[in-house]
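Before relying on records like the one below, remember that each one covers exactly one chain. Contacts with other chains, cofactors or solvent are not represented anywhere in the record.
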Amino acid sequence: MKSVLTGYIAMFILCNISLAQSMHQDPQAPTAPQHEHAFAWHGEPVQDPWYWLRDKDSPPVLDYLQAENAYTRSMTEGLAPFTDTLYQEMLGRYQQTDMDVPVRRGAWFYYSRTVEGQQYPIRCRRPASTAMSYDERAPEQVLLDLNEMAQGRAFISLGFMQVSDDGAWLVYAIDETGYRQYKLYRKSLASGKVEGPLAERVTRAQWATDNATVFFTTEHPISKRSDSLWRLKSGAKPELIHEEKDELFRVDLGRSKDLKYLVLEVASADTWESSMLDASKPDGSFKRVLPREKGHKYEVEHRDGLLYIRTNREAKDFRIVTAPMDQPSRWTPFVAHRHGVLIQGVEMFQDYLVVAEKQAGLSRFRIHDFRQGRWLELPFNETTYAASPMNTPEYNSSAFRYAFQSLVTPSSVFDFDMSSGKSSLLKQQAVLGGYDASKYSSERLWITARDGVKVPVSIAYRKDRARDGQAPLWLSGYGAYGYGSQASFGSWRLSLLDRGFAFAIAHVRGGDEMGEAWHDDGKLMKKMNTFTDFIDTADHLIRSNWTSAAGLVIEGGSAGGLLMGVVTNLRPELFKAVHAAVPFVDVMNTMMDASLPLTVGEYLEWGNPNEKPAFDYMRAYSPYDNLRKQAYPAILVTTSYNDSQVMYWEPTKYVAKLRTLKTDRNALLLKCKMDPAGHGGASGRYDALKDKAFEMAWMMQQVGITQ
């Protein structure tokens, strides 16, 4: 039966392809055959006639995806000149041969550099001559040249690299498929000899202070949940020392800033736990800091025998307490909880502590001087921006390194002298071609959602752009996992702004822009707030003459692709065009299948559909399950065949089903990367830029801009 069905499907697809090739006008879109697939959810019979598209690597599925790609190429053939124009335009703004700011680690300065024409960065180091600079007379040592490593491969991604404390050894992890399946290697930096792969499916690694023992974590082969911790001694086989059985939890591995302790972190969406091991005693056992307690999230740092614990106990947006190493439950308050001020993390130094906070959607840093007992705050002077620590490695440093950027200010690296309170600009991203920031403006808007909540929106535009309701606007959103959308700089956006677009980010509920409650109000049984916030933002931008429904294009990826799917089901007339990238749109089939990667661990974000109330709520918004006969905007869906986070079949099924229901003549295109690629698309920087140029050209074409 299966072979007969396979042959029928393949013949059906090939007939469609032949028909398309024989026509001189727009080709006919591929039609995915429907085959009965019945099952039951909570006793209710369900039919999913496109379920067969999950059969990865089967000839019918491959043929169908190739047909969709051929259709997309045919329908966008005329875009090629505009796409190339945008690509050359964006490429012309990049400093292709460049180097980032060197960072000192021990006796070396480490940096990454790029070379014009090469897809990947080169990781290098030079010996330090002073505390602040490297010896320019000493030859550069190349640690990893990803361009050489990529030869003969269509994809390569560096998961991490860690140098031993003595600077003699390197461990690193490489993925060659885009499936986030990393292999561990060890390299002698004296001889250049590489050993490995030493382990498969590696997620993290840290050195012990003996420079011979490596601890690493691995993921489950099916669920891709990071679940195991291993110890690897030079010349020996890996030894399993911890396996996390609870499917809601993942393991991660870190090291204290003073390098004295290895830290094993075990975390679910709402419960965190840490265990520590003296890094000088790698044969010892990890000791739990505080027992696992449902709803308690905490993490630890160490300084001079004291633990600094960031905890949400009696502190929704976290507070910081200290405790002796041998009495971790004996707390002394250090930084009090303040409602609406989210403590995102700490960076420890010998004489200073940096607290990263977020308030009213904006990041800030407060610095404590242990010697003088005083606090400093690092000021920023823009109304909407992104600022983040750069994890200065040297524990004894008096300089805190951070990055700052905004929608109109290129990414900039600063050192903040924690003794003087002064910042020094080390490097600002070059924007070639004469970028004049004074021609552009960015600001923070506040939108009143339907329930009265104020939603922040970041927006950028050229100052000479008319606000008459006629100009186009590009609106993006995400809103999940407590990940706030950053108002960061992207030189590619200048191609939009210079053609009259405004660019906006809706900081919808589900992120962390307004604290932990902002995440809570956009997940589980409050997830609909994410979608209605986005719709209310779009409505407001139209009513306020920023744009019109005929000029509003929207974009979101992954969980943001879910957002795109929901809002176009609910208010299709509100948007002219949609780009849904690697979209999580087949919510019910994914969340009802516990064997799929990531599913069980995400019950605490989306809900457990095995529980009927959660099932009903999720099903009410699941894009695939709520497609219906109505007119939709033009839609471009992009995905990768090897994506491990949102399987290719979710967007593929979505497009196949939507084709049978949409009542309009607007474009519906699926573009699936068949070459090795991941959740983030192509691995090479030029390839990624070409993809971006295509997506932008298509979106702009929908509002009548073609050059």
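Residues 99 and 531 are 40 Å apart (CA to CA).
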